[in-house]
Amino acid sequence: MRIPRLRAAAALPLFLVGAAPPQEASAPSAYETVDPFIGTGGEGHSFPGAVAPFGMVQLSPDTDATCEIRTCYGHAAGYRHDDPTIQGFSHTHFSGAGHSDLGDVLVMPQLTAGAKLEPGDPRVPNSGYRSRFSHAQEEAHPGYYAVTLADTGIRAELTAGTRVGVHRYGFPAGQAASLVLDLRTSLYNYPGKILWSSLRLLPDGTLVGMRETRGWAPARKLWFAMRFSETIKAHSFLNREEKVAYRGFQGPFRGRSDAAEVQGRALVAQLDFGALARPLEVKVALSGVDQAGALANLAAEPGGFDAIRAATRSAWEKSLGAVDLTAEAPMRKTVYTALYHSLLAPSVYGDADGRWRGPDDQVHRAEGFTFHSTFSLWDTFRAEHPLLTLVQPATRNADFVNSLIASRQVSPDGILPIWQFHGRETWTMIGYHAVPVIADAYLKGIKGFDANAALDAMVASADYGPYGGLDEYKKRGFVPIDKEPEAASKTVEYAYDDWTIARMARALGRTDIALRFEKRSANWRNTFDRRTGFVRARKADGSFRTPFDPTAINYGSDYTEGNAWQYSWFVPQDQGGLIRLLGGDRAAVKKLDAMFDYDNSRLDYSHAEDIAGLIGQYIHGNEPSHHVAYLYSYAGAPWRTQERLAQIMASQYKPTPDGLSGNDDLGQMSAWAVFTALGFYPVTPGSGQYVIGRPFVEAATLNLPNGRRFRIVADGLTPANRYIGQVALNGRPLARGYITHDEILAGGELRFTMAANPDRRWATGRNNRPYSMTGY
């Protein structure tokens, strides 16, 4: 079945559309409500430091940047809430990734008396430049972080602009001030990761440098420029490696030196400032292009600590102001912090002059857009990017699309990014999920990019045979497990991506492409085993691989970070077709219940790092499950969706450091919480629909990028009233279980009347269910 073209609802009068829900006079602002410490414990992998919306610089404390790669999983963001010491403050971090890198240009203030140049053992106080700290002496807000370093009494404050980070250090009176700058440290460090680095003190006192690393991303280059509010009175540059021989430069070990420049693979510097009458400010700009780019980025954001902090606070207030919430304090903090986490990536990675370094390791210039990177697409195509189409300007979303297209144009492989950061491709995860991001943006009316060039890039990625078994997929209609690992997952994810290509091609009038990819989008059926009722991996001869255990999770096997229970539901484009194969509505509901109610007591998933937040075989801590609770609505039982969402929100989110059940994955976990709290979710990006769940806030207003407002009200919302009794859109009863993107953009009001008992008739008819490619 094709999506019917729905007429956009008439906009309500401005006095009604614009009416914001009343807030208590004492309620803190959105900015004040955000708690950056949420997700810094447990497996959230978020960081508490200073960052501007989508900023290139993420200036944050690292509590252990010396762990070996196999033991660093819990420190993927650099900071872990239960650690007792801070090693220093570095300028680049991922928010909630399941893998890591970065931690670039680590700075630590210390007293000149007793200054040390090694980090030391966190178990042995004063064994190095790291310091103990107390959470009672910490403070964090969007764009600001502060802590008192207990071992030295230094008060450290951090803020950040788009391409700069600013430190402010208050030293005890009468004590000489010193900084250590360590270019040896990195998150997920291991021998040989630092390929080359340099430091140079310019005549005007500016310190510049670079380093090239071989980590998660290969041959990643980063330059920095650092200026100080006080004059450096003495400096020491050291190279700690035993031999220097790289790129034609050869030399002996360099010990303590007051030379103006040093190169090598193990650089550390001590900068002495003497006793200071006021706090020391350190302003740092980054560039992925060159030294001139770092210096220009430094000049592009003028002002000291207070000016940058004020500008970034203003930017955060504007960004967070996209949503006005009325809710109980814990829920309000959870949702606003989730919105904050959703606005950290994809991050700017082009210089102020438009230059950026691409996957070909060459420098390019963006014309008419700002280059962004840090695309965790396997995670973020689901809810993060759809959320940004509602809460960010169209220009920002166009920047994302233009960045994806530009990366593909200079990619040695001619494919859109898979998991890209700092312009470099990691080839992490599966699928070609830049495709649904682009298609969803275009189909929602976002302009500012060449749609036909975008479609060409999408098709090229879907046809790139060497990637992930695509040659076999195109030939057989499925990826064979005896030729390619994780074949079952790849087949169903490719089929969904193909559907979004077909949708965009139809909209552009490119019928030949639409017909080809509509056919490919049905390939998910080639992995479905009617006998067991699960999606399974098939061999090249067409047989399903045996033995088969739907609960087994083994990396590199049939499924990607999951098992048959999760992946058998990944048919977002054709849930109606899946429900028919399962035996109809009752059978589908029964299977969904079996998933959530599964007894895991005899299963051991300790070997699987990303498997967290289990409710039976539903795994909220990882993305393949994120749409599943909404699937009851496709089977005519939306009240069961309402029950499951209450179960998930209560068990998987809380306003504490361990308040995320799994990795936030660059905003996807958080975007799920924002959508679900509002009462709807984008199960199928590219369809233009949001499936109605149930709200968890009393009222919310979306202050949309087009200047209109869409209000959500939940009358009678209490813990006991967890069901939808009635739904009205712009004052008219709504019989269907979804709303459209166009209806939201038109402005208006979605009003829920909550009830203690389920309405088993609402939105159950086949014509009132969400989109499915082949109908119901």
UniProtKB/TrEMBL annotation:
GO BP: any one term: carbohydrate metabolic process
GO molecular function, one term: peptide-N4-(N-acetyl-beta-glucosaminyl)asparagine amidase activity
Domain Glycosyl hydrolase family intervals: 294-755
The UniProt record lists the keyword Membrane: no
Glycosyl hydrolase family 92 N-terminal domain sequence ranges: 34-287
Coiled coil: none
Keywords associated with the record: Hydrolase, Signal
SUPFAM superfamilies associated with the record: Six-hairpin glycosidases
Signal peptide (UniProt feature, chain positions): 1-25
Transmembrane parts of this sequence: none
Gene Ontology, cellular component aspect: cytosol
Domain of life: Bacteria
Cited NCBIfam families: aman2_put (TIGR01180)
Protein name: Glycoside hydrolase family 92 protein
Native source species: Sphingomonas aracearum
Record lineage: Bacteria, Pseudomonadati, Pseudomonadota, Alphaproteobacteria, Sphingomonadales
